[in-house]
Fold these 2 entries.
Entry 1:
Amino acid sequence: MATDAGNPIPRFPAGFLWGVSTSAHQIEGAAGEREPSVWDAFTAGPGRVKDGSTAEVACDHYHRYREDVALLAGLGVDAYRFSISWPRVNSPGGLDFYDRLVDELCAAGVRPVPTLFHWDLPAALDWLERDTASRFAEYVSVVAERLGDRVTKWITLNEPAEHTLLGHALGVHAPGRKLLFDALPVAHHQLLAHGLAVRALRAAGASDIGIANSHGPTWPASKESADTEAADFYDVLLNRLFAEPLILGEYPSGLGELMPGDVTADLKVISEPIDWYGVNYYAPTKVGAPQGTEIEFGGITMPAELPFSVRDVEGRPVTDFGWPIVPEGLTELLTGFRDRYGDRLPPIVITENGCSYEGIDDQDRIAYLDGHVRALHRAVEAGVDVRGYFVWSLLDNFEWAEGYARRFGLVHVDYSTLERTPKASYGWFRELLRAQR
Ligand code: BGC
């Protein structure tokens, strides 16, 4: 892949936050020391995770968090985005773990940035139920009371779009439902949970609150109206459905009418002001008219009834996961957001960006990250207010339905010994951070 490697990466604005991300279910392990989540139940079913693995041990971060914080300190990041497991907080001693982790991070000079929900819902709860949003806000209050003296930046939810689509519409993630458009209440209840959580956090005295939403440009397969209409529809689902209720206080394209009940009052809660808006960016998607048949795409079976079909982005190198590498898609996405929402768009933080590759001398990952950091800088130059960038991920980890087959880490994990080995990309990111100081 072509890069500008050799030319230094331009400087980002003063105070720009550099970090790495992980999530609880993907790294913690110690599953026996918390109540079950929907992911434990889902994983137990046959054929759900490609390599038949579970997250019971994962990276055993629960027991090795000190070593992992030392890796963060060695990397020199400003901040660490991790997630708090709601099932663990519900279990005796669970919150103590996050207390210790936050202390360790603060002592190492790394700012803790917890995500309060990254897909591991307690197994007894269900996002189809409106009440789950209120239960979430109660849990958030408990966490904020305990950690709010040291945590100064918060994320409510991770990618409610993927959790709705993959988990409830297509059934390839937990809880494994295949409801297609009947999954829309799951979107509304998560958005409501976000708004209630913002209120709960503010009531506990917290500030600097955001969300991590997944986004990417949607490219029509051709200029034919059947393709552009299908692509517009997909764009609404991926880029607008979870953004506009927060940013504009309204659902796009009349989708509010498909949500459960009268959502007018809920939209006031959902649009509770946030301090910044998190974007997880991996790749653009090419979308065309439905093809009348089931489509296999990226290991996901898309039913024929969908009003769009996802196609290959041709002529691009791909990562080991098969995802196209399109750094300028990040510039396009962010300038597009700025043009669409203007002054109403909160400052942006890239809460995830990364790629799956094998090997410890991961020059491909370096090229991917180098290209994307430069593309991000181009968005800054174009006037987008970007305040931070987090690499996904610190460690190789349990990649959901792909099991351990996909490695996104800057640090390699040997799953038989749990030994951590920094990859070439870890050294590259450390040098980038030094040069930015
Ligand atoms: C998720 C992560 C995941 C990553 C790579 C994001 O959608 O937030 O949990 O590991 O993408 O697939």
Entry 2:
Amino acid sequence: MDRNIIQKILIGFFFLTCTFIGFKAFNNSSELTETSSKPELNTNVSSSRMTYGRFLEYLEMGWVKQVDLYDNSRNAIVQASSPELGNRPQSIRVEIPVGASQLIQKLKEYNIDFDAHPAPKKSIFLTIASNLLLPLIFIGSLIFFFQNSDNFSGNSGSSPMNLGKSPARFDQQPDTGISFDDIAGIDEAKAEFEEIVSFLKEPERYTLVGAKIPKGVLLVGPPGTGKTLLAKAIANEAKVPFYNVAGSEFVEMFIGVGAARIRDLFKKASENTPCIVFIDEIDAVGRERGAGIGGGNDEREQTLNQLLTEMDGFKENKGVIVVGATNRVDILDAALLRPGRFDRQITVGLPDRLGRIGILKVHARNKPFDENVSLVQLANRTPGFSGADLANLLNESAILATRYKKTTITKNEVNEAADRIIGGIAGSTMEDTKNKKLIAYHEVGHAIVGSVLENHDEVEKITLIPRGGAKGLTWFTPEEDQTLVSRSQLLARIITTLAGRVTEQVVFGDPEVTTGASNDLQQVTNIARQMVTRYGMSNIGPIALEDENNEQMFVGGGGEYNEAVADRIDTEVCKIVNHCEQIATEIVLDNRVIIDLVVEKLLDAETINGFEFRELVSQYTILPQKS
Ligand code: ADP
Ligand code: ZN
């Protein structure tokens, strides 16, 4: 069974969350009409970046000096200085999520100097200039095309105006400072690379016996799993130069520029052998040729051709090893994967439980953790986390410890950081209203039904403290990495997820149910649909109607399903959901007394942890033993 697919659903709901977003207000943050002479936001600037969540934290900590908003408040350049940044002021880019309209309010609240920059009005000069630009581009590309047409005869003609020369982009790092010890959880990939390191160190040993070493190695896996880290580690362990580029840097508007850059890169690399050339997001260049429409394509094709030519150029590997990274090997051009090019593929997956423990240990090395912090427990709590997520988690807990002026990082900070990353930043508690009571019933409904079902994970915590977009949350502890999920487990998830809305209905009656369950319903529909279209768990039978990207792959190939098939899918999905709703209703009715009790406790305490919850419930009913 496809591990990835299951992993994907698992990540989707290892915690059951209930969003009470209500209706989204359509207020695009108040129009600001100020103008200023600040420069335009240049989306290519290589300034450092920070997440929105992090930015809010910086605000809270008083580390933000000034904020410039661009693109209708979708992007911001933030001037900040913090201990993390060595107390030197820096400009940091922040992408602001849609719906973060309270931001301006917040900025005012914290008394931050801010400014909004409207998109420039097109001036008459610009209009004239842009009219001229098109013919210019055309003429430019023509010249370029003729100059480059001799690429394949081995003559590497230099590009006009030196457009392709941008030496600054290939940052060559002789010492990346990363060693194999800094990488955990991906041992197979590491082992593959150890051989390459030994080749780089003593090539004679290999050439003597006629062994050929791959020129290209493709690292395939989701972001944040340590692909860049691996490439850096080989360079460092072998003590060779490391050239780091992103595939997107080769995709330019002007035809031929990308190709010229590739040529330039390989020229430099071959002057400095042995060395490692790391191309991140190689799919930006290496996408299947002829797969799209439009002019940008010709440019990409030329760039790709150039890359292929360069890789073929060195018949035997003289010491340039190209490491590519991508998450989508399926869209790569087949030519890239031929022997002599990227002929070795190494999968770098999300870490399993032991892997997560290893990674947490690596990142805990330089941090003073209290004895009560258990990295093993933390690893249990974080299936689906990538290495980068785990590193971030420990870093966040260190920041929290600083904020609370502690000298060691305790369990509290670690738990809070995990809650934040999984659920978003906590908001302030709600006023006691009818809504709060309804939310309490909704959450307790999830918790009770999930506990009664043998095949559902255990309750970790129920809380009425809002987090992210959700007004209340019920968290379940995933027992272990589940790479195979059974039909009854999927059904238990659907039943438990429906239980929030069902409890609202049972307790308050149909007219009072709220929009708060919309997220739950989406999840339910998703699972049920996948059971029908991908896992063959319905009356339609063991047929895969869709692949992991929800693309149709019905017998007969291509095109749309016929209507009859689409209708049958819908019918089967409804059947599953209705069946589950019925079971959820029965459980809620059977346990009404306990639900009332837990709600009372929850309204009082705001948060109940799994242990307290089970103790309370077990006074009234016998819960199944969970494995
Ligand atoms: P990728 O290139 O796969 O997107 P990176 O190699 O850039 O991911 O990883 C980003 C960061 O996440 C690293 O700098 C490191 O701190 C952390 N990280 C990711 N994977 C691992 C791992 N396997 N072991 C230790 N740290 C990791
Ligand atoms: Zn819910």
